[in-house]
Write a sequence for this structure.
């Protein structure tokens, strides 16, 4: 079971728990027509606000069924959205869900921290919602300090943010993130590799070659347990197999 937490802040209007639920479900159905509601019920939260709970299922891109239970509560113009994921059906009878919903507390003064933003961005990324994930990863990145002890998470978060922007088509934003990261942390090879991917997507093969070379020159500086991707199997570069000179260089890196 996977748990995610998010505050949604609409532009205006007095919200209710039911409206938060209905608006969120409308978005789910819009993004994935396979969504099927199983049940609706209401519980009382720790701060005595009503929590409207809905359970539903969706089919992912591989035909696998994902089950969700989401609790919504609201005050003024803020929605609280507490979501559970599972590979098996879940519902109000689950003791773990009952226990957590009973402690659901909407604190309108709370400011999301790094872990909150990173977790939610990961949820969106794994759902292939790259356009939505990208700015949340960037928000998480803004909450990481510059200390050496935070370097690994800063690198991981930058990679995720840049890739999400790139996959969703905002190459300029991805490039800006990686270039800014290199200015602060010039030894990390994945920044250069991802810039090479951006170059290739824009047909800038000279730049792509230069950035790939810089990446592989620094390959010893990857995060422990991490390896540089094989560019000869990367779909950023495979469209250029017919370019003999470029592909010979790419193959030599493998």
């Amino acid at each position: 079971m996977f748990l995610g937490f998010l505050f949604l802040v609409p532009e205006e209007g007095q919200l209710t728990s039911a409206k938060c639920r209905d608006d969120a479900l409308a978005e789910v159905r819009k993004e994935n027509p396979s969504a099927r509601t199983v049940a609706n019920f209401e519980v009382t939260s720790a701060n005595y606000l009503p929590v409207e709970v809905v359970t539903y299922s969706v089919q992912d891109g591989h035909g696998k069924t994902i089950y969700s239970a989401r609790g919504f509560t609201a005050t003024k113009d803020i929605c609280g959205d507490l979501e559970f994921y599972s590979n098996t059906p879940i519902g109000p009878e689950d003791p773990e869900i009952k226990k957590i919903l009973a402690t659901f507390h909407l604190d309108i003064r709370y400011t999301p921290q790094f872990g909150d933003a990173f977790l939610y961005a990961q949820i969106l990324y794994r759902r292939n919602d790259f356009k939505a994930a990208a700015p949340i990863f960037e928000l998480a990145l803004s909450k990481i300090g510059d200390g050496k002890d935070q370097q690994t998470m800063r690198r991981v978060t930058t990679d995720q943010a840049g890739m999400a922007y790139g996959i969703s088509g905002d190459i300029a934003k991805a490039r800006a993130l990686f270039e800014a990261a290199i200015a602060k942390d010039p030894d990390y090879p994945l920044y250069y590799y991802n810039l090479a991917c951006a170059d290739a997507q824009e047909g800038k093969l000279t730049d792509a070659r230069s950035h790939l070379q810089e990446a592989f020159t620094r390959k010893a500086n990857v995060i422990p347990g991490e390896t540089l991707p094989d560019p000869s199997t990367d779909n950023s570069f495979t469209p250029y197999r017919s370019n003999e000179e470029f592909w010979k260089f790419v193959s030599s890196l493998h």
User: Anything to note?
Assistant: Residues 1-11 have pLDDT under 50 and may be disordered. The beta strands are 2-8, 36-44, 50-59, 65-75, 78-86. The radius of gyration is 22 Å.
